[in-house]
Fold each of these.
Amino acid sequence: MKFNERSLGVVLTGLAAQSLAQCPDYTGYSQQPQGDPSSGPLGLPFMRPAPACRTFNSSAVEKVINDMKSLLKDPDVARMFENTFPNTLDTTVRYYSQEQNLAFIITGDITAQWLRDTANQFAHYGSLLGGDPELAKLVKAVINNEARYVSQYPYCGSFQPPPESGLAPSHNDWADGVTVNPPVNNQTVFECKYELDSLCGFLKLSRIYYQNTKDASFMNDNWRMAIDQIFRVINEQSQPTFDEDFNFISFYNWTGGGGSLSPLVNNLGNGEPKAFTGLVGTHHRPSDDLSTFAFLTSANAMLSIELTNLADMLDKTQQLTNVSQQAKQWSTKIHNAIWETTVVNNIFAYETNGFGGRYVMDDANVPSLLSLPYLGFLDKQHPAYIATRKILLSAKNPYFAAGKKFRGVGGPHVDPWHPWPMSQISAIFGTDDDQEILTSLYLIVNNTAGLGLIHESQSIYDDKDYTRSWFAWANSFFAEMVLDLADRKPHLVLTQNKSYRPSF
Ligand SMILES: *[C@@H]1O[C@H](CO)[C@@H](O)[C@H](O)[C@H]1NC(C)=O
Ligand SMILES: *[C@@H]1O[C@H](CO)[C@@H](O)[C@H](O)[C@H]1NC(C)=O
Ligand SMILES: *[C@@H]1O[C@H](CO)[C@@H](O)[C@H](O)[C@H]1NC(C)=O
Ligand SMILES: *[C@@H]1O[C@H](CO)[C@@H](O)[C@H](O)[C@H]1NC(C)=O
Ligand SMILES: *[C@@H]1O[C@H](CO)[C@@H](O)[C@H](O)[C@H]1NC(C)=O
Ligand SMILES: *[C@@H]1O[C@H](CO)[C@@H](O)[C@H](O)[C@H]1NC(C)=O
């Protein structure tokens, strides 16, 4: 461990940490209504932390909030936007040093950096990066920190603070008693469940940064090493369980001891066997739950898209032609395998195993099947999406549930009767139907337990029964969706039928 105590970044962090110590913990803060209620029927409270307690300030973010507050017609939606849009910057930047080009971003109530969450925590700031160079530098520092993680531990999805931060690693009760191969160091790794979409998250954040800044300086040695490791995982995890001579192939396995979130993984920590299809296997889902079958359709869809984006980015900057070639080949192979092996009668399976096993369901966590249009995999009018969506948003999906006030898709992460607001956000991205959009929007806005923030899940039986008061990814995703509607469907949410896009 090596860090320079005299570096400006560390000194600033020390000062910020001192003043932040007087700030209330946002987990508790977000469980009680705080500021004045909005003037709409729901009277939703203002939930941003006091300015001195915010973890990063961005003038571009404040401008978009002011623009949207003056344009949105429903004061309750405006209040939700005002609370959620800045939530990542207000509450989750635990460490940032421009000099070290490192930033540590927590998920909210869990003090660790998840590759998936961070990509989505920052996705809605993409169009602001050109107008706010300081925000762009922060995102670049996030990418560099993640490049170090991925180059070292490509199978892991969640990480500890970088040593330069001087922050202590957090203990993860859920990792107690877990044996993972290849082995990991718990000073760097918070949890090492192998989730394919975590690597896609890293690619997505890199792509968002590049698209909006045209700055290729993030492609440093760390980043190139991380990209090589991503291809290593793709090559390893697309292989079948047995080779032709029935040698058992295992590059990664995760065995649970007695830990509370460690259901024993069958086949000595390898999960269910898989055949070769061209898809890339995963071990756990984007929800961190164990996969039933290894080939998760939506994670492969995201991978196919982000590999095309990676190739595009490399070609435009004339870098790593060998990687660009591989990225294109894999993207096509995965795309074809999705259409050939996961769709039957226009219905996508959530998971398959290559032996004919299919699990038709959806889980709320993005990448989900409902979010395929959001991911950029297909058009929302595609007949296979329309037919699949109809099943996913009905009792035919094992993890769909409906009550008097709230309904949607959940998953085994909480339980079957707690659908997630995130699923209704994905549903909005997947339709052009005005009525469906408004219904989903108000299912979300009406069901925040009066707190004006997006929760992980909401019981269909009890308004007050929700999980995770502080979940930055879900807040960002909601704000991204409202911003998308302001552009795509202004007449639904704005006072005037005129598209709004942030401009600087
Ligand atoms: C953000 O701005 C407020 C003043 O408006 C200041 O008190 C706070 O320290 C700033 N936060 C950071 C991380 O610079
Ligand atoms: C890392 O693992 C060791 C050995 O199991 C344990 O004693 C320690 O508490 C762990 N550290 C963290 C931060 O979890
Ligand atoms: C677990 O994975 C390691 C590689 O990380 C491999 O060497 C070992 O054979 C695997 N063990 C089992 C039981 O699958
Ligand atoms: C691409 O080529 C570079 C330089 O020859 C090499 O270091 C790297 O491992 C290659 N990457 C891949 C994914 O093949
Ligand atoms: C949201 O709540 C309002 C006011 O109670 C109600 O009129 C509306 O039908 C609700 N919308 C949905 C989709 O539940
Ligand atoms: C909103 O404007 C678009 C064109 O900009 C038009 O096609 C649409 O019909 C308008 N909708 C309403 C409700 O006025």
Amino acid sequence: MTIQEVRPTRHPTAELDTALLALRTVEGTALFIDARASSQIVYFVETHHGSQAAAQVFTGFLAGCMHRITGSSVRECRPSGDAVLAIFTGPARVRDALDAAWRVIRFVHDEFDLTYRELLSCNGRCGDRACRGTLPFSVGAGIDDGPVTASTVPSPRHFYRELVGSCVSIAAKLSDVARPPNDVAMTSGAYECGQPYDPGLYEWYPSMTRVGGRLQHVILTRFTEPSVS
Ligand SMILES: [Zn+2]
């Protein structure tokens, strides 16, 4: 069987279908939203409430994020380990990615926190005097813009679809640069591409930050209203 004979089972748009089969490249904005300190969170929930509870917390986080990354410019939205990766295309792609990041941040701060607070808290039976009691759950979000190529990676049992592009890996690295609870880090290139912005919605903080081994102009974006801080 060759790669060309494998048809994708489900894809959101014809555009990426075509890109997948022909290895075509599209201009896209990558949004990467990462759960902070996820290994500590998994360990804490596992030791207090069991392995299934830890899976429940992360499934709830990933599903909740993906439900809030919506709109006509979303071309791909998927879990990536303990994070979510989304690709947006079209003229409003950067602004739509930014809006989606804000919806996710608000969801994690409000609805997710309310739903999973108990599982993220000590049940009083751990016997650990140094137990932290309750763990905060926060996310970092990174955005970059550039070419994205959908490709298929063969393995002995399955074919995996991967999205390849420097903007995808830069967005992932930038998610570590963002300061929770309500900052999104984006490259200056993505920022320029997203102009013009509604001046009432966001505040911008330019900085020079080491990303992927080199210094880059990074814009930290803070949502002005309503604040989650
Ligand atoms: Zn405890």
